[in-house]
């Protein structure tokens, strides 16, 4: 069959885009055993608030109808909070969908998208799907973004730069000063996406906060999500704020009606004053737990970078699979990124002692050695 190409092993006879056929299929990671801890997806370990569940359940009575296509009620609520107009807010089925929309709107074949690496595992695939080319700029030795090198990597072909703070999976923030200096170097006609999926967990005062920069840069869009701090990962709702013209372009690349009425209702209920106060109290509990876990690991000798999200990064290098397997044997599912390291979400309180117990036996003694 002469027409078959590289894609034949996945779909014999079907002519797929070769770069799509070559993408690794999405793997969600192993499910945790019943009595174990699922610390692989940076989810919120707390059950949803009863009021939020009720709002979602109430929305179920309208599912014979399509949702409001632009989720106006939620956009208005967010707009009021951030002091912008509703047209400067876009909501999507998780902020991952929105990142895809922005990349599709700005970059196609022959164009480049610059981001740090290692960063969010979804970025490479989104860029490839748009037909564009990823330009991955290595993180600094401290696992933070090398913004100078990222600015240097911008060429005539660059259409989008993605900045992730705190960076998933390494946990390191971009500071406000670093970001300011970076924006001064980026040409004003190139889109900068500031991915702030974990900003609610940040306790370092020096961190960039995109909400303080609104209206200051014609090319800046910030992205946030209800999935992590607000504990709505399963509902799929995130949002972006930025200049109307850029958001209009992203609206054009959306698959219509991605945000359901239930998603909007759950997000709106989470923004009610009492609900949000409780959710943010939980966030501070998780941030405190994170700091304790990190301090404990550092005391054992682990070189853990700054951790400002709801996760810690273990730079396990070539030992990544071994350490992840040992964790799994101890009923902890973490996210392994061989050959770089392991991201462990901050979950239930009981997981901290278990993690410190097992990882205490696996402390790297040198560049080479992790005890078996
Ligand atoms: C989790 C995450 C998102 C958003 O996820 P959604 O559930 O799609 O809102 C975006 N960026 C990063 C870096 C993340 O880790």
UniProtKB/TrEMBL annotation:
InterPro entries in alphabetical order: Aminotrans_II_pyridoxalP_BS, Aminotransferase_I/II_large, ArAT, HisP_aminotrans, HistidinolP_aminotransfase, PyrdxlP-dep_Trfase, PyrdxlP-dep_Trfase_major, PyrdxlP-dep_Trfase_small
Chain residue ranges for the region called Disordered: 24-45
Cofactor(s) needed by this chain: pyridoxal 5'-phosphate
CDD domains for this protein: AAT_like (cd00609)
Assigned keywords, A-Z: Aminotransferase, Pyridoxal phosphate, Transferase
Keyword Transferase listed: yes
Sequence ranges assigned to domain Aminotransferase class I/classII large in this UniProt record: 35-357
EC nos: 2.6.1.57
Enzymatic reactions: an aromatic L-alpha-amino acid + 2-oxoglutarate = an aromatic oxo-acid + L-glutamate
Keyword Transferase in annotation: yes
Location of N6-(pyridoxal phosphate)lysine modifications: 228
Family the entry assigns: Belongs to the class-II pyridoxal-phosphate-dependent aminotransferase family.
Protein's job: Aminotransferase that catalyzes the conversion of aromatic amino acids and 2-oxoglutarate into corresponding aromatic oxo acids and L-glutamate.
Subunit details: Homodimer.
Protein name, UniProt field: Aromatic amino acid aminotransferase
Gene that encodes it: hisC
């Amino acid at each position: 069959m002469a027409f078959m190409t590289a894609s034949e092993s996945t779909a014999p006879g079907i002519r797929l885009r070769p770069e799509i056929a070559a993408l690794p299929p999405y793997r969600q990671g192993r499910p945790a055993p019943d009595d174990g801890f699922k610390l692989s997806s940076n989810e919120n370990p707390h059950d949803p608030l009863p009021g939020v569940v009720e709002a979602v359940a109430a929305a179920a009575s309208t599912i014979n109808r399509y949702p409001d296509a632009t989720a106006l009620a939620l956009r208005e609520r967010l707009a009021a909070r951030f002091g912008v107009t509703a047209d400067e807010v876009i909501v999507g089925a998780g902020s991952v969908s929105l990142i895809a929309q922005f990349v599709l709107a700005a970059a196609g074949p022959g164009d480049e998208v610059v981001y740090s690496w290692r960063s969010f595992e979804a970025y490479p695939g989104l860029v490839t799907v748009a037909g564009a080319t990823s330009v991955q700029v290595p993180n600094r030795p401290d696992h933070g973004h090398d913004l100078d090198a990222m600015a240097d990597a911008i060429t005539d072909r660059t259409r989008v730069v993605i900045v992730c703070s705190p960076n998933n999976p390494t946990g390191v923030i971009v500071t406000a000063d670093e970001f300011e200096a970076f924006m001064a170097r980026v040409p004003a006609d190139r889109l900068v996406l500031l991915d702030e999926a974990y900003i609610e967990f940040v306790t370092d005062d020096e961190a960039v906060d995109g909400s303080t920069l609104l209206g200051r840069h014609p090319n800046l869009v910030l992205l946030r999500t209800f999935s992590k701090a607000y504990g709505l990962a399963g509902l799929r709702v995130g949002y972006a704020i930025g200049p109307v013209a850029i958001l209009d372009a992203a609206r054009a690349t959306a698959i219509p009606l991605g945000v359901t009425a239930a998603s909007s209702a759950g997000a709106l209920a989470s923004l009610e004053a009492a609900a949000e106060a409780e959710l943010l109290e939980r966030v501070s509990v998780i941030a405190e737990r994170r700091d304790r876990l990190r301090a404990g690991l550092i005391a054992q000798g682990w070189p853990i970078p700054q951790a400002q999200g709801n996760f810690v990064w273990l730079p396990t290098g070539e030992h990544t699979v071994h350490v992840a397997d040992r964790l799994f044997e101890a009923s902890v599912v973490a996210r392994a990124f061989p050959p770089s390291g392991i991201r462990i979400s901050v979950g239930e309180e009981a997981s901290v002692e278990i993690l410190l117990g097992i990882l205490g036996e696996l402390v790297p003694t040198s560049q080479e050695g992790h005890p078996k």
